[in-house]
Design goal:
The chain has helices spanning 2-19, 38-41, 46-55, 75-89, 100-115, 122-127, 135-146. It has 149 residues and is an all-alpha fold. The protein has one domain (2-146). It is elongated. Bound molecules: heme C. Heme C binds next to helix 4 and helix 5. This is Heme-binding domain-containing protein. The chain crosses the membrane at residues 7-23.
């Protein structure tokens, strides 16, 4: 029995070590400036900008601020999957290239997602506590998003 346990734990440990070597390409553009960025399309107040950049841009832009534990597998693969899916739906860096209709749909969608606490993704916030939106931040964001200028 003991031997089986040892072999099992040994195998699990080995697999965990081996998968660390699989590190997909990072979502990074070395801090490029985009004329089509969301923050160029409106006069975004500083507090709103900061909340968006902290809590949304990691998945919804071409540049993720990774933290050290993002590099640990299998979390890494999961984060990268979130980023790819998120950018397909909404990339703040490409906001200016979207049609008016798409922008309007996304603004409404953002408000709903934020108010329902569906964004940032709960499982992500569970680990990245600093990305969690406080009730005040939710108010600041949604109030501005309801009437962006
Ligand atoms: C951990 C990554 C992650 C973070 C952080 C994140 N999102 Fe998302 N977001 C996603 C993914 C993935 C999707 C794609 C749909 C899904 O899986 O729910 C998505 C979808 C969306 C959509 C739906 C787009 C549509 O077509 O209707 C909106 C709006 C959105 N996110 C807004 C936000 C806002 C606003 C923030 C910050 C408050 C945020 N997201 C933070 C990953 C993220």
């Amino acid at each position: 029995m003991r031997k089986i346990l040892k072999v099992t734990f040994g195998t699990i440990l080995l697999v965990l070590i081996i998968i660390q070597f699989y590190q997909p390409e990072r979502n990074s553009d070395s801090g490029k400036n985009y004329t089509s960025d969301f923050t160029s399309s409106y006069k975004v107040p500083e507090d709103v900008k900061e909340i968006l950049q902290t809590s949304c841009y990691d998945c919804h832009s071409n540049n993720t601020n990774y933290v050290w534990y993002d590099y640990i597998q299998p979390a890494r693969t999961l984060v990268e999957k979130h980023i790819n899916n998120a950018k397909k739906e909404l990339n703040f860096n490409e906001w200016g290239t979207y049609s008016n209709r798409k922008q309007e749909r996304l603004l409404t969608s953002m408000i709903t997602q934020i108010e329902n606490k569906e964004m940032p993704i709960p499982s992500y916030v569970f680990i990245h506590r600093e990305k969690k939106l406080s009730d005040i931040q939710i108010k600041v964001l949604t109030n501005w998003l309801k009437n962006p200028e």
